[in-house]
Amino acid sequence: IMKGFCENLMDDLLRRMEQYANNLESLVEEKTEQLSMEKRRTEELLYQVLPRPVAQQLLAGEMVQPEQFECVTIYFSDIVGFTALCATSRPMEVVDFLNDLYSTFDRIIGFYDVYKVETIGDAYMVVSGLPERNGHDHAREIGLMSLAVLDAVKSFTIKHKPDQQLKIRIG
């Protein structure tokens, strides 16, 4: 009887240890997948806020050396009457409007040798000639891009104020 009891006890212990090991493996797999997802999200965010070459260097663990650029062209634009527009609009209308407008701008800049630096409120900032040098083409690229933006603004409709013509300042 004792021999059968010991065998059952050993079988039970082995079964429990196997279950525990399987649970640990599942937990490790789950945590590894979560870590992998977070890493991808972090990399995507890095690529959104930094120029691609800088992000690649950082992700490779390399030191990013500061560079000096002799000649670049910077583009700024803002929306004429943005404060008044906000005062007569609901917050989500403003968010949707800016999202539509900046999505339009983002599509346009994809055709030019430019880099979007940032958008803050109604301000949109783009540069050409960095982070990749393009010789003397930077002014032409910004100029052509600016004309394309102006052309798009002429036909842009503010969804919650379709009768209002959008105007922007560029400098």
Describe the structure.
- The chain has 171 residues and is α+β, with helices and mostly antiparallel strands.
- It has two domains: 2-59; 73-170, Nucleotide cyclase, GGDEF domain (Alpha-Beta Plaits).
- It is 58% helix and 13% strand.
- Strands 2-3-1-4 form a four-stranded antiparallel sheet, covered by helices on one side.
- The longest helix has 48 residues, at 2-49.
- The N and C termini lie far apart (94 Å).
Tell me briefly what this model is:
This protein has 171 residues and is α+β, with helices and mostly antiparallel strands. The protein has 5 helices and 4 strands; from the N terminus they run H-H-E-H-H-E-E-H-E. The chain folds into 2 domains: 2-59; 73-170, Alpha-Beta Plaits, CATH 3.30.70.
Strand content: 5-15%
- What value does the average pLDDT take? 90
Provide the domain count. 2
The CATH homologous superfamily of the largest domain is termed Nucleotide cyclase, GGDEF domain
Q: What is the count of DSSP helices, taking H or I runs of 4+ residues?
A: 5
Gyration radius, to the nearest Å? Answer: 28 Å
Structural shape: elongated
pLDDT < 50 runs, ≥5 residues = none
Number of strands: 4
> Which structural class do the helices and strands define?
alpha+beta
Q: Roughly how much helix do the residues carry, as a percent range?
A: 55-70%
> What letter string, H or E per element, gives the SSE order?
HHEHHEEHE
Could you say what the CATH topology of the largest domain is called?
Answer: Alpha-Beta Plaits
Major β-sheet strand ordering: 2-3-1-4
Distance between the termini: 94 Å
The largest sheet is: 4 strands, antiparallel
Q: What top-tier CATH class of the largest domain fits best? A: Alpha Beta
CATH architecture of the largest domain: 2-Layer Sandwich
EC number: 4.6.1.2
Keywords: cGMP biosynthesis, Coiled coil, Glycoprotein, Lyase, Membrane, Nucleotide-binding, Receptor, Signal, Transmembrane, Transmembrane helix
InterPro entries: A/G_cyclase, Cyclic_nucleotide_synthase, HNOB_dom_associated, Nucleotide_cyclase
Membrane topology: Single-pass type I membrane protein
